DNA sequence: CGTGTGAATACAT
DNA sequence: TATTCACACG
């Protein structure tokens, strides 16, 4: 996940943020000046955070409830080895998955009903190889939590130990059942006719792509990395508590907001490439940061490097950063490593692997299938080592991941194939036409019915698959509303302000 | 002045 | 547990 303080790092002046209530879009938006009829606001929801949220809400179920009360703890100690039965455990796990799923569906439906928006849910896919090291660390931490969760009840009954345990429980949460929640949510989405899409890799890049192609009008996420991808507009911090008023309020961030509010940090004249460089410089998921480089310093360095007419801007950026950094023990080797990581991060943000729902295949953002790189990247490609990285398919794939053939990509996007393992998902109803595709790809595996006979259930579902599966195929991938709305969607030339769809923007409060 | 730190607070569960 | 504040360092 993104740098949480990142939003504030970039935009320290919170007052300048626009608080927006999605209900004010009930009547749709004026999509372009040529279209008269307002159309529903199309939002892409980064569902990952909602899953985490569900996890937080129900994760404690995974532990024995008795651990939470003194009475229960005593009971456990007296009973000695009161291992819950297998049956009990399964029931509890199932209940957990159901709770999480219901939680998410409830929110999405509430959102849909109250705001009349069109929702496209976007799931995270595989972790890009370039980020793998981070994730490995995260997994180690996760393992520690799980270990703490599963360790026997502290016989001393010390409060600290118990609190630690509960905390660990919360954090470990669904990890073990995450796949279960994933498939359950996807099944539920099909049932509810809510379009969704599984990104080949990170949802950030996918959402940014959808946004830039104008397949969606607004991104709903918690991840400030989206800014780094050059996406706009973005709605952060959408309240997710069903009890409170203001569930549909969030903080809207458009490109203009990056410009206006702060004296020393004015990003108005920043190209998308510069913005990415800036984000990488202040620290990202993909690369470490230099000590002493904050938003202000980085901003100055990037501006100077890009706007002072120097050919090799990236080299200038590096120079500036190294000069400004508190150079305690910055050896040549350190610099070399830093530059390498920096460029890898840059590649990851500028050219993520995405699924194009109109072309119906994966590709690198900003790079055509013929390997032609977008004009917007010219200012970065003048740095030879970076250009080499971008143009070297093998090295590139080691960062961004591979581009799967369309047949497989579609099945991944539709949720039938796990993007990480590239195998059929367990516990998922597979319609007949999808099954045929899976067989053809040689990755079909019938988890529920090993002898291969068609069940009543399956028959039922395939008969209606033209509507249902294609819940995703029809509703989101083939939905005409997902076509680019303007012919100017190809004008990628640095303009990602996206002010057009928000011509009916509600009055700002605050 | 900007950055990095830890402590205090408000918040939600 | 996340955000905000106050302070020290360069």
Rg computed from alpha carbons, rounded to a whole number of angstroms:
24 Å
The N- and C-terminal alpha carbons lie at a distance of 28 Å
The CATH superfamily of the largest domain is known as 5'-nuclease
CATH topology type of the largest domain: Rossmann fold
What does this structure look like?
The protein is an alpha/beta fold and 510 residues long. The protein has 3 domains: 17-29 and 39-253, 3-Layer(aba) Sandwich (Rossmann fold), CATH 3.40.50.1010; 272-400, no CATH class; 406-499, no CATH class. The strands form 2 sheets. Strands 1-7-6-5-2-3-4 form a 7-stranded mixed sheet, sandwiched between helices. Strands 8-9 form a two-stranded antiparallel sheet. It has helices spanning 6-10, 48-58, 70-79, 86-115, 132-150, 159-172, 178-192, 203-212, 225-228, 255-260, 272-282, 295-307, 313-324, 332-350, 378-381, 384-391, 393-400, 406-414, 432-441, 456-463, 465-468, 470-477, and strands at 18-21, 42-46, 118-123, 196-198, 218-221, 234-236, 249-253, 353-356, 361-364. Residues 65-69, 154-159 and 453-510 have low confidence and may be disordered. The longest helix is centred in the N-terminal third of the chain and has 30 residues, at 86-115. Helix 2 packs across helix 4 (86-115), helix 11 packs across helix 14 and helix 12 runs antiparallel to helix 13 (313-324). A hairpin with a 4-residue loop joins strand 8 and strand 9. InterPro entries: 5-3_exonuclease_C_sf, PIN-like_dom_sf, XPG-I_dom, XPG/Rad2. Residues 130-162, 450-510 are annotated as: Disordered. Residues 147-162, 477-486 have a biased composition (Basic and acidic residues).
């Amino acid at each position: 996940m993104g740098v949480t303080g990142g939003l504030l790092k970039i935009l320290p002046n919170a007052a300048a943020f626009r608080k927006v209530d999605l209900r004010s879009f009930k009547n749709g938006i004026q999509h372009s000046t040529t279209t008269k009829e307002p159309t529903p606001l199309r939002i892409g929801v980064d569902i990952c955070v909602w899953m985490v949220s569900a996890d937080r809400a129900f994760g404690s179920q995974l532990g024995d409830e008795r651990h939470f009360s003194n009475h229960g703890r005593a009971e456990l100690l007296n009973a000695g080895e009161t291992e819950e039965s297998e049956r009990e455990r399964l029931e509890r796990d199932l209940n957990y998955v159901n709770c999480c799923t219901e939680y998410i569906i409830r929110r999405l439906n509430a959102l849909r009903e109250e705001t009349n928006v069109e929702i496209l849910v976007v799931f995270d896919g595989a972790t890009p190889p370039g980020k793998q090291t981070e994730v490995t660390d995260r997994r180690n931490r996760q393992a520690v939590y799980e270990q703490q969760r599963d360790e026997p009840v502290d016989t001393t009954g010390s409060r600290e130990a118990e609190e630690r345990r509960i905390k660990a429980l919360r954090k470990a949460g669904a990890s073990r059942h995450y796949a279960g929640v994933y498939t359950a949510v996807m099944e539920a989405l099909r049932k509810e006719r809510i379009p969704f899409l599984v990104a080949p890799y990170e949802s950030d890049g996918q959402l940014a792509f959808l946004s830039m192609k104008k397949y969606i009008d607004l991104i709903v996420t918690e991840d400030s990395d989206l800014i780094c991808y050059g996406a706009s507009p973005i709605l952060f911090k959408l309240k997710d508590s069903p009890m409170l008023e203001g569930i549909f309020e969030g903080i809207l961030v458009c490109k203009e907001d990056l410009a206006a509010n702060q004296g020393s940090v004015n990003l108005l004249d920043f190209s998308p490439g510069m913005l990415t460089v800036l984000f990488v410089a202040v620290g990202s998921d993909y690369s470490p940061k230099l000590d002493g480089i904050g938003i202000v310093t980085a901003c100055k360095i990037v501006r100077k490097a890009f706007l002072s007419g120097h050919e090799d801007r990236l080299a200038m950026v590096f120079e500036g950063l190294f000069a400004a950094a508190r150079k305690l023990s910055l050896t040549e080797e350190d610099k070399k490593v830093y530059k390498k990581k920096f460029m890898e991060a840059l590649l990851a943000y500028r050219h993520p692997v995405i699924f194009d729902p109109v072309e119906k295949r994966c590709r690198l953002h900003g790079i055509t299938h013929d390997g032609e790189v977008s004009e917007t990247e010219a200012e970065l490609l003048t740095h030879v080592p970076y250009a080499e990285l971008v143009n070297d398919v093998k090295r590139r794939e080691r960062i961004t991941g591979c581009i799967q053939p369309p047949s497989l990509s579609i099945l991944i996007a539709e949720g039938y194939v796990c993007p990480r393992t590239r195998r059929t998902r367990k516990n998922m109803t597979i319609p007949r036409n999808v099954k045929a595709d899976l067989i053809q790809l040689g990755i079909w595996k019938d988890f529920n019915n090993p002898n291969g006979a068609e069940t009543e259930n399956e028959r039922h579902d395939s008969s209606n698959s033209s509507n249902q599966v294609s819940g995703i195929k029809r509703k989101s991938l083939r939905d005409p509303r997902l076509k680019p709305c303007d012919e100017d969607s190809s004008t990628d030339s640095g303009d990602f302000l996206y002010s057009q769809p928000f011509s009916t923007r509600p009055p700002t409060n605050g």
